[in-house]
Write a structure and sequence with these properties.
Elements lengths: L12 E2 L12 E2 L10 H12 L19 H9 L12 H17 L9 E5 L2 H22 L10 E5 L4 H9 L3 E5 L21 E7 L11 H13 L7 E4 L7 H4 L12 E7 L11 E5 L11 E5 L2 E5 L9 H39 L2 E6 L5 E6 L9 H10 L6 E3 L8 E6 L6 H20 L18
Parallel strand pairs: 4-5, 4-6, 6-7, 7-8
Antiparallel strand pairs: 1-2, 3-9, 8-9, 10-11, 12-13, 13-15, 14-15
Helix pairs in contact: 2-8, 3-8, 8-10, 9-10
The structure holds pyridoxal-5'-phosphate (PLP).
Pyridoxal-5'-phosphate binds next to helix 4.
Length: 466
């Protein structure tokens, strides 16, 4: 968020109310106080401020991890001060990052015949920026070699309307036109039959999404690859695919290993994923891997010193803590393939249970039943005598502490207001039962309510949806 000047007329004061008389200070909220506080007082005050915040475990809106094992947390706490960019001070940490890149490239089937390269990032947003920049620079080289007039049009990126906001940011920040392939009720992911209508000589690449944030559905990447392959055979301006696997990158390989979406597809040149989604690490860590060094233009790579030598890096941020990287490596060695599969399978099973339970309630039409990403999306089934909306249901659920967002689908589908539940590793079957009980009770209450709050049912965003 961008914050601005606090406009209250006079400063508000925070007064500690616990403990010793030494705590009887007044503390201005919006400017630095003159005096210092004892650690205990400061701790108390900050904890008090955070007291009425949502409980992250009950937040069914987010894909981000809300649980890690105590050992992982200790390890991460103990490594908070390590600066991930300082490869020469922390060469072991650099080696851990290197191992993670190798583990992930292997998971995504990078070919032995090519030289993959990749890096950790703060999250998928940074990873998408890097993937997008590499596509932009590589396109420009190809276009220049072909003699294309680079000033005649802005370069463009092709993506379905189900994109996550980071791609809009990428296009705005780096001055790229976004060619959005619309979604409609028949095409709830990238419309592969029409994707080429949006491609031209100025296209830097096509983004396929392995798990659309809104609905959890996968773009059909194998078909996209086939379409792109046929196109590239007949053009001098080839296009390539970046897969935004923010959610699917650490989920699909374990739950649906037969699905071919990754470097097994010839035209997929780069992939990103969020370590802090189904990679099971607390925010923020992400990853981006290129199938071969040739797809990452040299100008984008900067050298940092490393044990008397130099190490290539690509990042938008410079300093940040290495503890998330170390948490990621902990998870990799702790869980292995079997462990990740078991955890994700349990998550998948909980999503299936919820899908069945939601269908049984009789009020909802499921748009996504957790078959792909373990998330449930549903709208209200038409029933003329129902006075409440999904927005009212979100409110009611919040009374039990559950945060469940309600929002309209993107462009062309915005008349459909849906609710979404993201199932994560720490949402066990026990919690799913509790949730269904609370949901059933909330609906019973709404059916009897005399005043419903959201009588105006124009689509609006309600809750966190990214
Ligand atoms: C969450 C998400 C992102 C952004 O990821 P962060 O790790 O939060 O920066 C990008 N794309 C998709 C498809 C996502 O689901």
């Amino acid at each position: 968020m961008l914050y601005g000047k606090h406009t209250h007329e006079k400063d508000e004061y925070l007064s500690p109310i616990f403990g010793a008389s030494a705590e009887r200070h007044d503390l201005p909220k919006y400017r630095l106080a003159q005096h210092s506080l004892a650690p205990r007082e400061a701790d108390r005050l900050v904890r008090d401020e955070l007291l009425d915040e949502g409980n992250s475990r009950l937040n069914l809106a987010t894909f981000c991890q809300t649980y890690m094992e105590p050992e992982a947390v200790e390890l991460m706490k103990d490594t908070l001060e390590k600066n991930a960019i300082d490869k020469s001070e922390y060469p072991r940490t650099a080696e851990i990052e290197n191992r993670c890149v190798n583990i992930i490239a292997n998971l995504w089937h990078a070919a032995d015949t090519e030289k993959f390269t990749g890096t950790s990032t703060i999250g998928s947003s940074e990873a998408c920026m890097l993937g997008g920049l590499a596509m932009k620079f590589a396109w420009r080289k190809r276009a220049q070699a072909n003699g294309l007039d680079l000033n005649a049009h802005r370069p463009n990126l092709v993506i379905s309307a189900g994109y996550q906001v980071c791609w809009e940011k990428f296009c705005v920040y780096w001055d790229i036109d976004m060619h959005v392939v619309p979604m409609d009720p028949q095409h709830m992911s990238l419309d592969v039959d029409h994707v080429l209508d949006y491609v031209d000589d100025y296209t830097i690449g096509i983004v396929g999404i392995l798990g659309i944030t809104y609905t959890g559905q996968y773009d059909d990447l194998a078909r996209l690859d086939a379409v792109v392959e046929a196109y590239n055979r007949r053009t001098t301006y080839p296009v390539y695919i970046h897969v935004d696997a923010a959610s699917g990158g650490f989920y699909t390989p374990f739950i649906d290993p037969q699905l071919i979406w990754d470097f097994r597809l010839k035209n997929v040149i780069s992939i990103n994923a969020s370590g802090h989604k189904y990679g099971l690490v607390y925010p923020g860590v992400g990853w981006v891997i290129w199938r071969d060094q040739q797809y990452l233009p040299e100008e984008l790579v900067f050298k940092v010193s490393y044990l008397g030598g130099e190490l290539p890096t690509m990042a938008i941020n410079f300093s940040h803590s290495a503890s998330q990287l170390i948490g990621q490596y902990y998870n990799f060695i702790r869980f292995g393939v079997d462990g990740y599969r078991e955890i994700q399978q349990k998550t998948h099973d909980v999503a299936h249970y919820l899908a069945k339970a939601l269908a049984k309630i009789g009020e909802f039409t499921l748009i996504n039943d957790g078959r792909q990403l373990p998330l449930l999306c549903y709208r209200l089934t038409d029933r003329p005598d129902r006075e409440w909306t999904l927005y009212d249901l979100s409110d009611r659920l919040l009374m039990h502490g559950w945060q469940v967002p309600t929002y309209p689908l993107p462009q062309n589908l915005q008349e459909q207001v849906i609710q979404r539940i993201v199932v994560r590793a720490d949402f066990g079957m026990n919690m799913a039962h509790d949730f269904i009980d609370d949901l059933t009770q909330a609906i019973a209450e709404l059916n009897q309510a005399h005043i419903v709050f959201h009588a105006d049912d124009t689509p609006k965003k309600y809750g966190f949806t990214h």
